[in-house]
């Protein structure tokens, strides 16, 4: 089958619409995953059992169920019991919630990696628990976990096409729709190249950042 540049030209407006949806889902989903993941990680260290165990149960459940099932649940089931969201908003919440359970483990490992002497020094300086976390523990822990967190951003990018299943047409969703209408494959090829162009440089940047931070 020959390559038809006219087909590509016809697809490009829809491609850029899909790029915008993909970037929105990735950017906001990442913010949710990073922020909520830190909340999960701190809650799992709570001395209160009634806080710690429900959080552990919820994060384990989310981590061990497919993202696609969670998206369907948020889009088709949750509106029966509360307000509904647009397909894009649902996709963003689903991505952020799903990946927050993984970033929580990254934060937990970073916190556990802070030397015990740092806790002892904060105690010796009579720092409050809140100030110990803000000024001593979290700055060191977050510095350690930046590269692993970056890997999950790339993973979220590769999972973002799943939001098309609930009607939020990202790059791949637009390409599939266009290909079904025109019986061509150029659009899918363009999107495949686009994912490589975005993901590969991002992975190189993460590796460089990791080398810089471990010095």
Automatic annotation (TrEMBL):
Chief subcellular location: membrane
Keyword Transmembrane found: yes
CDD domains, sorted: TM_PBP2
Compartment list: Cell membrane
Any Pfam family: BPD_transp_1
UniProt keyword Transmembrane helix present: yes
Transmembrane segments: 20-43, 187-209
Keywords: Amino-acid transport, Cell membrane, Membrane, Transmembrane, Transmembrane helix, Transport
Ranges where the ABC transmembrane type-1 domain occurs: 19-206
InterPro entries: AA_ABC_transptr_permease_3TM (IPR010065), ArtM/GltK/GlnP/TcyL/YhdX-like (IPR043429), Ectoine_EhuD (IPR014341), MetI-like (IPR000515), MetI-like_sf (IPR035906)
Membrane topology, record value: Multi-pass membrane protein
Highest taxon listed in the record's lineage: Bacteria
Annotated family: Belongs to the binding-protein-dependent transport system permease family.
Listed PANTHER family: L-CYSTINE TRANSPORT SYSTEM PERMEASE PROTEIN TCYL, MEMBRANE COMPONENT OF AMINO ACID ABC TRANSPORTER
NCBIfam families assigned to the protein according to its UniProt record, in alphabetical order: ectoine_ehuD, HEQRo_perm_3TM
Protein name: Ectoine/hydroxyectoine ABC transporter permease subunit EhuD
Species annotation: Streptomyces galilaeus
Gene: ehuD
């Amino acid at each position: 089958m020959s390559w038809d540049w006219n087909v590509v030209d016809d697809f490009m407006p829809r491609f850029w619409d899909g790029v915008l949806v993909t970037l929105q889902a990735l950017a906001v989903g990442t913010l949710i995953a990073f922020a909520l993941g830190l909340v999960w990680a701190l809650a799992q260290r709570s001395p209160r059992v009634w806080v710690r165990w429900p959080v552990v149960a919820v994060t384990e459940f989310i981590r061990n169920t497919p993202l696609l099932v969670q998206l369907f649940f948020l889009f088709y089931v949750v509106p029966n019991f509360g307000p509904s969201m647009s397909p894009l908003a649902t996709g963003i919440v689903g991505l952020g919630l799903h990946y927050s359970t993984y970033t929580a483990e990254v934060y937990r490992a970073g916190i556990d990696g802070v030397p015990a002497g740092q806790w002892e020094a904060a105690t010796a300086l009579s720092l409050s628990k809140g100030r110990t976390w803000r000024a001593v523990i979290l700055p060191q822990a977050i510095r350690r976990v930046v590269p692993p967190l970056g890997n999950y951003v790339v993973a979220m990018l590769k999972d973002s096409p799943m939001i098309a299943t609930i009607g939020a047409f990202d790059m791949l969703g637009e390409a599939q729709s266009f290909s079904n209408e025109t019986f061509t494959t150029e659009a899918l090829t363009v999107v495949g190249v686009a994912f490589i162009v975005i993901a590969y440089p991002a992975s190189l940047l993460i590796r460089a950042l990791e080398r810089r931070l471990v010095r």
